[in-house]
């Protein structure tokens, strides 16, 4: 639909010019119209192929939380839990905002990371289900999302520094050693990719919970360009990547979930996916699961009725039981 709108907007002035020429030169009107339309369609396609990747890359790097999520007002108090509004900095200095729920009888803290265009409210319900059973929790807004500071969105590369900053902050708030108060890293979609990137370059965490991560930016851009825009992979994806990595200031090939999961510490791992995910197929999570070096790992694939990252929303009781069982079994 977006592609058709772009092409229509580009074609309209040219078609108007063609109509004027056809009226002016009646004897040759059809030949002129055919030639004009052919030239104009070619020009419009070339312009769309060249301009659209730049426009969309700029829109993505300067994006943030979608308006409906900005209007959400829920917080941990809605679940009967005491919490603090907290602020801390990512590893590269971006100011971040979040909520902190101190750990109770479980003496463990869950760091939850949301997806692209969302904010911390996306992971609130699933994390508070754990907090009500004694787990501590740290939920935060990624850079350029929610109330956190502005910085180019990078689909997980720079956002891994946000997860590392959250890990530093959580460690500063708990008492005892990492064995006495373990920290669990949990993320969904882009949050899962950022979590995995942080895990690949750090330690000090006791378990990983990854919900619907994508494999790489290149593959994700190609898949989404066709799924949502009906843009061909060539040349749209290559041009989009060209602009995107320059605007965001990193090499997109640095985001590789398969390489990251091999470098991550061999801690207990829970992978979550769904067969109904058209954006990131369940096979990605299955292959990541196989790649993991974790001796204690578990995967749960929800059904075809569940779209991308929606397992917790559509099957909350089953999702909560799955995560609680995993944590109760794997944490000391």
Descriptive notes:
- It is a single chain.
- The chain has 332 residues and is an alpha/beta fold.
- It folds into 2 domains: 2-61; 67-216 and 255-330, Alpha/Beta hydrolase fold, catalytic domain (Rossmann fold), CATH 3.40.50.
- The chain has helices at 2-24, 29-61, 67-70, 124-131, 159-173, 190-200, 217-229, 233-248, 257-263, 282-291, 311-314, 316-330; strands at 84-89, 95-101, 109-113, 136-140, 183-188, 207-211, 269-274, 297-302.
- Strands 1-2-4-3-5-6-7-8 form an 8-stranded mixed sheet, sandwiched between helices.
- Helix 2 (29-61) runs parallel beside helix 8 (233-248) and helix 7 (217-229) crosses helix 8 (233-248).
- It starts with a helix and ends with a helix.
- The model is unreliable at 1-7 (pLDDT under 50).
Subunit arrangement of the protein: single chain
Q: pLDDT under 50 segments (min length 5)? A: 1-7
The secondary-structure element order is HHHEEEHEHEHEHHHEHEHH
Q: Name the shape in a single word.
A: globular
Count of alpha and pi helical runs: 12
CATH superfamily of the largest domain: Alpha/Beta hydrolase fold, catalytic domain
Percent helix: 40-55%
Number of strands: 8
Q: Termini separation (Å)?
A: 52 Å
* Class derived from helix and strand content: alpha/beta
CATH architecture of the largest domain: 3-Layer(aba) Sandwich
* Count of the separate structural domains: 2
Features:
single chain; 2 domains; Rossmann fold; eight-stranded mixed β-sheet; alpha/beta; disordered N terminus; 332 residues
Give the helix/strand layout:
Elements: H1 2-24, H2 29-61, H3 67-70, E1 84-89, E2 95-101, E3 109-113, H4 124-131, E4 136-140, H5 159-173, E5 183-188, H6 190-200, E6 207-211, H7 217-229, H8 233-248, H9 257-263, E7 269-274, H10 282-291, E8 297-302, H11 311-314, H12 316-330
Parallel strand pairs: 3-4, 3-5, 5-6, 6-7, 7-8
Antiparallel strand pairs: 1-2, 2-4
């Amino acid at each position: 639909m977006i592609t058709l709108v772009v092409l229509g907007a580009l074609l309209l002035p040219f078609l108007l010019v063609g109509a004027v020429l056809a009226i002016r030169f009646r004897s040759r009107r059809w030949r002129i119209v055919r030639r004009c339309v052919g030239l104009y369609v070619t020009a419009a396609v070339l312009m769309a192929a060249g301009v659209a990747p730049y426009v969309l890359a700029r829109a993505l790097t300067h994006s943030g939380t979608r308006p409906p999520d900005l209007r959400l007002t829920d917080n941990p108090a809605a679940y009967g839990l005491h919490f603090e509004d907290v602020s801390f900095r990512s590893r590269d200095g971006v100011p971040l905002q979040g909520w902190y729920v101190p750990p109770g009888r479980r003496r463990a803290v869950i760091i939850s990371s949301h997806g692209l265009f969302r904010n911390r409210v996306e992971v609130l319900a699933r994390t508070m289900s754990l907090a009500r059973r004694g787990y501590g929790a740290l939920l935060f807004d990624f850079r350029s999302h929610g109330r956190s500071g502005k910085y180019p969105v990078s689909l997980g590369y720079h956002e891994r520094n946000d997860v590392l900053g959250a890990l530093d902050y959580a460690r500063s708030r708990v008492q005892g050693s990492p064995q006495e108060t373990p920290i669990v890293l949990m993320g969904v979609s882009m949050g899962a990719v950022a979590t995995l990137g942080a895990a690949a370059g750090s330690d000090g965490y006791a378990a990983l919970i990854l919900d619907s991560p994508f494999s790489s930016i290149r593959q994700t851009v190609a898949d989404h360009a066709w799924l949502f825009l009906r843009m061909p992979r060539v040349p749209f994806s290559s041009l989009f990547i060209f602009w995107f990595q320059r605007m965001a200031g990193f090499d997109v090939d640095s985001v590789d979930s398969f390489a990251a999961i091999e470098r991550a510490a061999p801690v207990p791992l829970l992978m979550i996916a769904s067969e109904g995910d058209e954006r990131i197929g369940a096979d990605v999570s299955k292959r990541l699961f196989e790649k993991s070096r974790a001796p204690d790992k578990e995967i749960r694939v929800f059904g075809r009725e569940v779209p991308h990252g929606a397992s917790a929303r559509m099957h909350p009781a089953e999702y909560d039981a799955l995560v609680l069982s995993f944590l109760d079994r794997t944490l000391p």
